[in-house]
Design goal:
Two copies of one chain form a homodimer.
Chain A (H helix, E strand, L loop, with lengths): L1 H9 L2 H15 L4 H17 L1 H12 L3 H24 L6 E3 L12 E7 L3 E4 L13 H9 L3 E5 L4 H17 L7 E5 L1 H9 L5 E5 L2 H12 L7 E4 L6 E3 L1 H20 L11 E5 L4 H9 L9 E2 L3 H15 L5 E4 L6 H4 L4 E2 L2 E6 H6 L1 H4 L7 E7 L2 H11 L2 E7 L7 H10 E5 L38 E7 L20 E3 L2 E3 L9
Parallel strand pairs in A: 1-18, 3-4, 3-6, 4-5, 6-7, 8-9, 8-15, 9-14, 13-14, 15-16
Antiparallel strand pairs in A: 1-2, 2-17, 10-12, 11-13, 18-19
Helix pairs in contact in A: 1-7, 3-5, 3-6, 3-7, 4-5, 4-7, 5-6, 10-11, 16-17
Chain lengths: ~500, ~500
């Protein structure tokens, strides 16, 4: 591994981007089977390195061995899901129109499929050192499409990033992916240079609103703007109906407490604001659930000192608002961080929907860490007005009782969020075909997802071939469909083998 | 019609955007059948108004009755194609994952589909007063998804825009679309305000690189950036192999002459640069084809005086380049416009691939009008280097003989363009399922198409429903699939009725 370590450590942005561009000449023409083999090789290598990687991740992130072991398994299972999806082939949207002289204008032979964009820059996130970092969803989905990747490792886990990069690069090389298919750079300046580099064709980013907006602006102001897929900020509102709080307040309070404190609250899907009926005493129930965890000596280490101090500041700012009361936890100025530097402990705050409607910007600032704001509403209508003021979010959750009419509630929740939950809590994001991780600004910057199979669409662009000789076409578009992938032919979706399958 | 005329003329941006937002509360929940009926009603009304609209379009655009009649038919057939696609339903990407406890993490019941973004601003283009204007592809694809539309009419055909807007608004009202589903505003300031308006969620634009870039920058720098789907500029390179020019030079020259002069060269898919073997005499063959059309009294009126004078200036700049020779037409300083104000006539220029490689910016500036630049190459390799220097384009064409190995050529053409042609010429864009109209910057600003069925994807965003009661789900995601649309269920694409259909 010495050679690889050296190669990766010494590689700068220009070198990594040029190597990625050079690799793209090969990866753009790779077969689905080849790409599936690359992804599987990376997954196998990461699994094999688990006993080395998980302790390293725990040293740098303090997230605990159990959580990190699960996160690594999620990461490798994500790579394998993309491998299956690549072979299945429908993500290419292969479409064939045979010539038709009766249309206006006449249709020539036209065949369309998606093709990889080119080298992709991926920014690792601090809070998921495996699943949203070097070998996370952005990297997996980009490699799956045939786009080389240059990762900018996160400074919160530099040693893990380097070691993961070595494992990924080694696995790709062993699986015969071309040199330059994967690169790794470090540091803020490298990240900025990467977003502006002429050879980079798209960016995947998970991080803060502030940093993400700055990089989005750089990507958009290039001479040739490129797509910037950023997942930036979300408060993930939860609405509890009067019937639900009446039927199962204690269960809901326990569920909320477990969700907002999970991983010391460092989830982008953390339930940050929870709407409950006024007078329900719900905030106090949640406070009772987290009671012991608020003790100074129970404070848990956060990802970085900077995140812990930003959390303390954010909580203090909220607590200092005239209309906010502290129901549990330490939220005086700087007091949450005071237990020990770099730690955080649960805080439950409460306010009213009327206050939120009057001052949404102050009350809905994302506070990254283990806090939640319980918002007491006078009516569902008032709660919905306040939720609209939240703006875009990754998730929105409703807890209701069977038989309640949810039409008005759903109209608002689907408008502001990318994933709407009817049970459970938003932390925990399944990696599957139907997943959607993204939502209206500032949740994400675009109309695509960063988790789940359709995340591949971000790194693809359509190309149509007009009147091409069959031999000149990619296999996916040849008349006899040699790969047997689903295709739309003359407007009709055709799934080979579907005749034998029940609908 | 008096009431409608007044309503549209007096409506400002704020009013139109607010009305669109209000309509969205209804259109977001519209059924596929309702949207199909709206589109069909608009198509029928436009067809019924043909004898009024075509002469009006001709007065303002000078494009001729035959072309404009065909363009209107294309426009209404486009609306009807979207109506069929909406009912077919696969554009929603409906995906269902049943719960699966064996995945990491476990998968809950997750159901995902695409939903409309909200009010869309559409900028009419000057060169297609029907097909890319008030009721063109952007409007049709946005309405198809359930997004209300506010059109900013193009100043090149104000009376046609207003009248078309009245017909569209009247047809939608008669088909029971909610008030505000369609609006129309005019003027540069209105366009700028529209792109920045808080209620507008996306923009469709076809126009110049300069104007498009300015609006793209506005959309990207909003407090909440929105997608800007711009089709801006393309030179549409054509590569003729030595074997092809040897086999059929005269036929190719005639084809090129017809294509680059079509509609006085005012097509975004105009073949602006054509690579031919050095010494083939191809430029002179093209010159002979357009010979008579270059006479001063043969000059044809262009869309606007501004376009004609920009064309004359562009041609003069190219002709003034040390390495460019004028093979046919009048290309001295201002001389093309000199025939009569607002007119243009064909110009054939020639240069070498070496000159292009040395100075691509100067030689590949898009020159909107009836000119083409014949580029003589010493080798295919040299031609491909020059084509790479062209950058992104809507189309790229190769003319080769049967049996030639096109791998190297295709690698370059697919990299720079969204549509690759193997026969014919790029002017003429079929509206179909497989069409792709878009390409790398500056051809378009995003990874989507503005023509063809998949243009709808631009105005949609995914929403996933987690553990939703069946009754709370949109019909498209209910377990029993009441609308019978294609869906992906547990990773498998299921097309109802496909059992009976040959693969």
């Amino acid at each position: 591994m010495t050679t690889e370590t050296t190669a990766i450590a010494e590689t700068g942005v220009d070198e990594a981007a040029a190597a990625a561009r050079s690799a793209f000449a090969t990866t753009v023409a790779s077969t689905a089977a080849e790409r599936a083999a690359w992804l599987t090789a990376v997954a196998d290598a990461l699994d094999a390195a688990r006993d080395e990687l998980v302790p390293l991740a725990d040293e740098e992130s303090h997230l605990g061995t159990a959580r990190l072991t699960g996160e690594l398994a999620r990461t490798t299972s994500q790579l394998r899901l993309f491998a299956r999806a690549v072979v299945e082939g429908s993500y290419l949207e292969a479409t064939i129109d045979h010539p038709d002289a009766t249309t206006i204008p006449p249709t020539p032979d036209l065949r369309r499929m998606l093709r990889p964009l080119g080298p992709v820059a991926v920014f690792g996130a601090s809070n998921f050192p495996f699943a949203f970092s070097v070998a996370g969803g952005d990297t997996a989905s980009a490699l799956a499409t045939g786009c080389p990747v240059v990762v900018k490792g996160h400074s919160a886990h530099p040693r893990l990033s380097r070691r993961t990069a070595e494992v990924v690069a080694g696995a790709l090389a062993a699986a015969d992916a071309p040199d330059g298919t994967f690169g790794h750079v470090e540091g803020r300046a490298a990240g900025i240079a990467l977003v502006q580099h002429p050879e980079i064709r798209a960016v995947g980013f998970t991080g803060s609103l502030h940093g993400g907006r700055a990089l989005f602006d750089l990507a958009s102001s290039r001479p040739d703007p490129i797509p910037f897929y950023g997942e930036l900020s979300a408060v993930n509102p939860v609405l509890v109906t009067p019937a639900a709080v009446e039927a199962r307040a204690a269960e809901l309070a326990a569920g909320l407490a477990a969700s907002f404190t999970l991983g010391v609250g460092q989830f982008c899907t953390n339930p940050g604001v929870v709407f409950v009926p006024a007078g329900s005493g719900f905030a106090e129930l949640v406070a009772a659930e987290v009671g012991e965890a608020t003790a100074p000596d129970a404070a848990a280490p956060m990802l970085t000192d900077g995140i812990a101090s930003a959390f303390a500041d954010g909580v203090a700012a909220l607590a200092g608002h005239d209309d906010v009361r502290v129901v549990a936890g330490r939220a005086g100025n700087g007091s949450n961080a005071a237990s020990a530097p770099g730690t955080g402990s649960p805080v439950v705050l409460a306010t009213t929907a009327a206050a939120v409607i009057a001052d949404p910007q102050a009350l809905f600032a994302e506070c990254f860490g283990p806090s939640t704001l319980v918002v007491e509403y006078a009516s569902i209508e008032e709660a919905l007005t306040a939720i609209r003021a939240v703006g875009g979010s990754l998730t929105a959750t409703v807890h209701a009782e069977p038989g309640e009419d949810l039409a008005d509630i759903l109209a608002v929740l689907t408008e502001i969020a990318g994933r709407v939950l009817f049970a459970g809590w938003p932390t925990g994001v399944a990696v599957s075909w139907a997943q959607q991780h993204g939502g209206p600004w500032p949740a994400t910057t675009t109309i695509h997802t960063s988790v789940g199979v359709t995340a591949m669409r971000r790194f693809l662009r359509p190309v149509a071939y007009q009147q091409a000789p069959d031999a000149a076409l990619p296999a996916e578009l040849r008349e006899d469909n040699p790969l047997g992938i689903p295709r739309r032919v003359d407007g009709v979706l055709v799934v080979p083998g579907a005749e034998a399958r029940p609908a």
